[in-house]
């Protein structure tokens, strides 16, 4: 649970995390027309996804990412979408596909190029020196560093830059989404008892290849960006990683970056519900959703346009439309009773009438020790540790794990119900948040924090100054954090919670933020009625029912240990 030291002083200082330091420029600044197609051109796409590798452990969600994004582009009005999956994605075929989509591009087009798979740092090609002497290679299905021919099965970052330059030379724009990391750093170590993290990266290699890249020195200078009109989104920065995740409300595996980009093209990135998605909305949406879905292990790195191109009729103001929301989804499925257009696709379940939630649970020991925790709200499905359980209980220590993190400690079998309901509630809240996420970050960082550490949560909700903040502890206890009795009902933005001290019981505390321009007195009173009670599912249901339609929802977890 969360503990606020008596001497804590609430600070509203503008402490801007590096992860939030966006350039404020548009992804695409051209006006859009209905169906998501840019007003002066077409929406095109080339999407590559590789799960099955010749000489590397397979991924689980890259092909699903490619299929999902391809479908999202078509739903947004694209008719020219090329999908390459697994063995289809050879270097020769991929280069031909890149040349093809570039050749078909016309002035005013938006060309989406996406890769989901593995990446690795390797020997540099070309004459422009890099400080590390390495460059990022996005490896294809036949990649094999032990085989002379197999070493060539990859696409180099400068080659993607070359394609973007060619697209811009034709008066078009590109969105380059590279859902793989050549260099990663663990934000928090994974607990070995939990679900193993599958990262989208390979160790660096110094083994030379035979490639003569299609790129040139100018491409190397601009890698990975910024470009004049185009945007680059990389799965992680140097301080984070890109684990495959299970999307909220679903099974299977995905890349958080690809999942967020696909949801934005479906219209869920239209955060102000004006029927179009601006560059700031797109970038902010994707970064926050990926951050939340990865349990805060992933910070998407974004390079936005560096300049204007007025001669081509493009403007740079970030408030301009980049793409129209698909017809019938103008509100993007924002949570709340005021939503006249309910969401479709992967988010549809968030707005369905209440039903029994199913939770996959496993034990590190004798599964027969797990009590019967099913209830009118939750159906427990006992699975093995190999079947991607959402919750794992260690009967020896009493630790409860979600994914690869300990969320509660020293829980006996009789006290597990709170952790079960907490997991269901957080899953529900994440699913709702994907429709309209609020910008929330943990300070000073997302690492595992030990006894006595001081933490905070930073909220940057803009004009949405009516805020309700509550915590769901690892054992399911709900705590109202803001506003308390003497707190103002409007919070100046950016806003920091009072300092929180890491004290027992340790595990994960999930801080939930609801922000709106409208008063939230009804939600505040309802959450206050649950204060210090184990009612996490009821809290999630109240958020869904009482949030105004234009509200946003964000959540982050604070991980603590003795």
Automatic annotation (TrEMBL):
UniProt keyword list: Signal
Pfam families: Peptidase_C14
Start and end residues of each EF-hand domain: 270-292
InterPro entries from the UniProt entry: EF_Hand_1_Ca_BS, EF_hand_dom, Pept_C14_caspase
Region Disordered, residue ranges: 187-220, 327-351
Annotated Low complexity bias: 331-342
GO terms classed as biological process: proteolysis
Species in which this protein is naturally found: Alsobacter metallidurans
Annotated protein name in UniProt: EF-hand domain-containing protein
Signal peptide interval: 1-29
Domain of life: Bacteria
PROSITE patterns: EF_HAND_1 (PS00018), EF_HAND_2 (PS50222)
GO molecular function: calcium ion binding; cysteine-type endopeptidase activity
């Amino acid at each position: 649970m969360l503990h606020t030291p008596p001497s804590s002083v609430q600070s509203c200082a503008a402490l801007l995390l590096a992860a939030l330091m966006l350039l404020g420029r548009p992804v695409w600044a051209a006006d859009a027309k209905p169906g998501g197609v840019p007003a002066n051109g077409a929406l095109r796409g080339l999407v590559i996804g590789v799960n099955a590798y010749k000489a590397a452990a397979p991924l689980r969600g890259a092909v699903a990412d490619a299929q999902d994004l391809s479908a999202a582009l078509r739903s947004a009005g694209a008719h020219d979408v090329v999908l390459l999956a697994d063995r289809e994605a050879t270097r020769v075929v991929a280069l031909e596909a890149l040349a093809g989509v570039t050749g078909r591009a016309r002035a005013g087009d938006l060309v989406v190029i996406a890769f989901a798979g593995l990446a690795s740092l390797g020997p540099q090609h070309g004459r422009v020196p890099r400080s590390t002497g390495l460059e990022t290679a996005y490896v294809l299905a036949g990649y094999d560093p032990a085989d002379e021919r197999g070493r060539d099965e990859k696409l180099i970052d400068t080659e993607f830059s070359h394609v973007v330059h060619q697209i811009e030379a034709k008066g078009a724009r590109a969105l380059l989404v590279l859902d793989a990391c050549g260099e990663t750093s663990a934000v928090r170590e994974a607990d070995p008892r939990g679900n193993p993290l599958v990262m989208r990266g390979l160790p660096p290699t110094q083994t030379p290849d035979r490639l003569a890249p299609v790129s040139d020195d100018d491409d190397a200078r601009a890698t990975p960006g910024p470009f004049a009109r185009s945007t680059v989104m990389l799965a992680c920065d140097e301080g984070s990683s890109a684990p495959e995740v299970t999307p909220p409300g679903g099974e299977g595996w995905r890349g958080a970056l690809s999942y967020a980009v696909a949801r934005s093209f479906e219209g869920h990135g239209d955060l102000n519900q004006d029927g179009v998605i601006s560059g700031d909305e797109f970038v902010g949406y994707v970064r926050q959703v990926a951050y939340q879905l990865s349990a805060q292990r992933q910070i998407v790195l974004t390079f936005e346009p560096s300049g204007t191109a007025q001669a081509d009729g493009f403007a740079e103001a970030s408030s301009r439309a980049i793409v129209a929301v698909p017809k019938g989804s103008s509100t993007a499925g924002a949570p709340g009773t005021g939503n006249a257009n309910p969401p479709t696709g992967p988010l549809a379940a968030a707005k369905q009438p209440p039903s029994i939630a199913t939770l996959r649970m496993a034990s590190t020991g004798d599964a027969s020790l797990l009590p019967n925790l099913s209830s009118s709200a939750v159906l427990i499905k006992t699975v093995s540790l190999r079947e991607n359980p959402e919750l794992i209980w260690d009967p020896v220590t009493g630790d409860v794990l979600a994914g690869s993190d300990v969320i509660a400690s020293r829980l006996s079998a009789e006290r597990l119900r709170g952790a079960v309901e907490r997991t269901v509630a957080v899953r529900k809240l994440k699913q709702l948040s994907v429709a309209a996420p609020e910008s929330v970050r943990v300070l000073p960082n997302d690492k595992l924090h030990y006894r006595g550490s001081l933490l905070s949560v930073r909220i940057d909700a803009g004009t949405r100054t009516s805020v309700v903040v509550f915590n769901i502890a690892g054992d399911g206890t709900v705590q109202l954090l803001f506003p308390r009795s003497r707190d103002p009902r409007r919070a100046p933005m950016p806003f920091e919670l009072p300092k929180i001290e890491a004290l027992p019981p340790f595990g994960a505390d999930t801080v939930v933020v609801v922000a709106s321009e409208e008063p939230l007195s009804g939600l505040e009173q309802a959450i206050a009625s649950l204060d210090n009670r184990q009612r996490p599912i009821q809290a999630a249901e109240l958020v869904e029912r009482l949030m105004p339609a234009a509200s946003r929802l964000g959540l982050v977890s604070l991980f603590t240990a003795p």
